[in-house]
Design brief:
Helices cover 41% and strands 13% of the residues. By secondary structure, the protein is α+β, with helices and mostly antiparallel strands. The chain has one domain (9-152).
């Protein structure tokens, strides 16, 4: 088994869904073959994987892009006219992440093929992905799932995680950002 760390490029293995997967809601057939980057690792053996949009099936990618545009328009419409006019082009950008919570054992390094995936591809070269199964669109953000693993003792990876910023750190960073913005407008 490969030891993964946050930031590693991975691919979700293609395999059959088991009754245990259904009960735990941990693997769905449409996840197989998706590529992405490990966003966060949890001590319970799961990983939040930020999926590459280009690895999504066309129908799911289209639906994701439409939802992203709706959310962007809603956000911009909620701003005052003055606030909208002050936004820079970079600040107007709005990207919606696509994150799935997957068991680490269902991951493999990107580009590596498992035996079961290679065997499956030789028997059925065209895998059909049902667009009706869109649980990944409703995937829970990693921050909400982090509470489930916080009851356990922190793992070595969690201990190496960066410290949470204090209020004074955030205020200082905000002040620096505002100063840099003022300088860039001049």
């Amino acid at each position: 088994m490969t030891n993964f760390k946050e930031g590693d490029r991975v691919q979700i293995v293609v395999r059959e869904q088991t009754n245990g997967d259904i009960k735990e809601r941990s693997y769905y057939p449409y996840m197989g073959g998706l590529r992405g980057t490990i966003y966060r690792l949890y001590s319970d053996g799961r990983a939040a994987v930020q999926i590459d949009l280009d690895s999504l099936p066309e129908t799911v990618r289209t639906r994701h892009t439409e939802a992203q545009e709706r959310m962007k328009n809603r956000w911009i419409d909620a701003l005052s006219e003055e606030a909208r006019s002050r936004l820079t082009p970079e600040e107007r950008e709005f990207h919606l992440n696509y994150v799935l919570l997957v068991r680490v054992q269902d991951l493999q390094p990107e580009g590596k093929r498992s035996r079961s995936a290679a065997k499956k591809e030789t028997t059925s070269p065209t895998q059909t992905v049902k667009p009706e199964t869109t649980a990944q669109a409703r995937a829970t953000p990693p921050a909400k799932n982090a509470s489930t693993s916080s009851a356990k003792a922190p793992s070595a990876q969690e201990a190496d995680a960066p410290k949470r910023k204090t209020l004074s750190d955030l205020e200082k960073a905000e002040e620096e950002f505002l100063k840099s913005r003022q300088h860039s407008r001049r």
